[in-house]
Structure prediction request, 218 residues.
Amino acid sequence: MELAVFTVRDERLEVLLVRGPGNRWALPADEVGEGATLAGAAAQALARQTGVRGIVAEQVVTLDRPPDAVAVAYLALIAAERHPLAPGPDVVEVRWFRHDDLPALGREHADTLSRALRRLRARTAYAPIAFQLLPEAFTLGELRTVYEAVLDERLDPRNFRRDVLAARVVEPLERVRADGPGRPARLYRSVPGAFAVVASERRIARRVRRAGGPADTG
Prediction:
């Protein structure tokens, strides 16, 4: 399996890569052992190669790998500061790279990464992806910054605020944050409970998701 793991740092979308002996960078990847589940093998490979543990990865696509193998690609979006990196025994280096400034990757891993990025952007259509990257209390500006990094475009602050509040995926707290001169910003938190895709979420998705091309149905 192959894992495309993303984060947002300094308002930029970044990808986790590993380097084995030599100077060849790649996605974390491994073979699935006999009797192992795909999801379990993906989690174990990621932990062993990078030190990243305790995350939830989404299966993206199954790809043919000549001559007679297949690769199952997984996608995860995590908060980098919560997951210290630790190269495994067969890994020389593990690093975050900006998604638009990567070292050379093999064709197959470059294809996997491209598909995973399209899926990540498409996920803004049906899931509030940014919350797993934010602290419990956040401003709408911080939320918008994550979406801008993932979608790689600027969003109008007033429209974004209106659409997020209309979608009812956040709720205000009785607290504000002063980050400098000017009016303190209201703090919010994600609405607890299971996320249900209803009309309001679809409306915010249509307005917010305008980058990344068509969804990858892989």
About this structure: The beta strands are 2-9, 12-19, 25-26, 58-65, 69-77, 93-98, 170-177, 185-190. The helical segments are 38-50, 107-123, 140-151, 157-167, 199-208. The longest strand covers residues 69-77.
